[in-house]
Design brief:
single chain; 421 residues; D-Maltodextrin-Binding Protein, domain 2; 20 helices; 13% strand; binds alpha-D-glucopyranose; SBP; periplasm; transport; maltose binding
Length: 421
């Protein structure tokens, strides 16, 4: 009996010490489509392995609103969130509030795509771990291209013509709410990614070049914006001026658009059991600006970082390493079509089966156009905000493209006055 009591006492002691050690980690995960559910499965698996608990903090869908929320929390030194899901373009902006993961991430970092590793480093230090890679893609309705006997558009002029033809035809068939092309036109970071694709595809550069020179005021960029402004109200609903990713996916997935620009996550949802367009969708590179233009998809993606103000930095770092591991990236790719950042997973048969486009569009991902986040450092959000506001004015016909770009050039020069960083 005494022995039993002693062993019960021992067991209770172990339990007590486990729970004293076990911690609660909070993580911000975005919730586009299935993102929340897939994040939850990942953190629950880690919690089970470690005995810790994890709380998910939901964040706004708009990247720009999310950044503002993070900046507010971090500026106050708040320890409410231990692990932040951060956009590839925010590392420089948030670095002062993040833990240096160089030592802990060292063993794994070389397994990741170099472009994504670059977005995770600031002044040579690893401030985040790559989680998934994004690139802008063209989604099309294969059934409608077949019906109207049209090929997948190669240039924006082709897309404009084909979108128009399908839209006219579908509307004649009584589908008054059918549109040719939907994308992200709200004045937020997503518009920067869309407009950069138009500009780069016409050969108009990437707003600011690698040396920090402002290049956006040029005839190719003007031409690109003119083309995009021409879509609004013709092949694209005026409402697009307030669309983020999810609003455009809503229209496309309801079967009400021929083409959509979006990130890879929309694939798993379009192919979902309850999708009205399941089996009818294809993905291609976004069109070229013209015969001498190029296919251009903006490089996007998300990283995981640990807050400098976390009270449980070791456990938080362990969670980051678990979520960004090969096993977890594979699960996310198969279930949610989140492109891995680990190079080896690009030859994984299960991932290729679930997402045929990943293999077919290797060029889109390897040649994705980077936003000028590294070169403009802490100023990136200001640069992007000026850019998307200027583009939004053109799209809503409040400014002519050349005039808007001239003003933008002047505003960017003002931001750069004391150098970028
Ligand atoms: C996606 C991309 C991100 C981009 C954002 C714009 O979340 O991963 O890089 O900034 O969309 O809306």
């Amino acid at each position: 009996m005494p022995r039993l009591i002693a062993s019960l006492g021992l067991a209770a002691g172990i339990l007590a010490s486990t729970s004293a050690w076990a911690v609660e980690i909070s993580i911000s995960c975005s919730a586009l489509g299935k993102e929340y559910e897939i994040c939850k499965q990942g953190v629950d698996a880690w919690a089970k392995r470690t005995g810790n608990t994890v709380k998910i903090v939901s964040t706004p869908n708009s990247a720009t609103e999310r950044l503002a929320l993070y900046q507010q929390l971090l500026a106050a030194g708040a320890s409410d969130i231990d692990v932040f899901q951060i956009d590839v373009v925010w590392t420089g902006i948030l670095a002062d509030h993040l833990m240096d993961l160089t030592a802990k991430g060292q063993a794994d970092i070389d397994d990741h795509l170099p472009a994504m590793v670059e977005t995770s480093r600031v002044n040579g230090k690893l401030m985040a771990m790559p989680w998934f890679a994004d690139a802008g893609l063209l989604y099309y309705r294969q059934d409608l291209l077949d019906k109207y006997k049209r090929p997948v558009p190669q240039t924006w002029a082709d897309l404009t013509e084909t979108a128009r033809m399908i839209q006219d035809g579908e509307r004649k068939d009584g589908r008054g709410d059918f549109w040719g092309y939907v994308w992200q036109g709200r004045a937020y970071e997503g518009l920067t990614t869309n407009a950069l694709e138009w500009v780069a595809s016409f050969g108009g550069g990437a707003i600011v070049d690698d040396k920090g020179e402002i290049t956006i005021e040029n005839p190719k960029a003007t031409e690109a914006l003119k083309a995009a402004a021409g879509w609004v109200g013709t092949i694209t609903p005026e409402g697009v001026l307030n669309y983020t990713e999810e609003e455009s996916r809503g229209v496309f997935q309801a079967g009400n658009a021929a083409f959509m620009r979006n990130w890879p996550y929309a694939w798993a949802l379009a192919q979902g059991a309850d999708s009205t367009i399941k089996g009818k969708v294809g993905i291609a590179p976004l069109p070229k600006g013209g015969a001498d233009g190029r296919h251009a998809g903006t490089l996007g993606g998300q990283l995981l970082a640990v807050s400098k103000y976390s009270k449980n930095a070791d456990a938080a770092t362990d969670l980051v390493l678990y979520l960004t591991s090969q096993q977890e990236q594979k699960r996310r790719a198969v279930e949610g079509s989140f492109n891995p950042t680990i190079v080896a997973l690009y030859s994984d048969a299960d991932i290729a089966r679930a997402n045929p486009f990943i293999g077919d569009l290797v060029d889109v991902f390897t040649n994705a156009v980077a936003r000028p986040a590294t070169v403009t450092g802490q100023n990136y959000n200001k640069v992007s905000t000026e850019f998307f506001n200027a583009v939004h004015q053109v799209l809503s016909k409040r400014a002519e493209p050349a005039q808007a770009l001239n003003r933008l050039d002047r505003d960017l020069k003002r931001i750069k006055r004391d150098g970028w960083k």
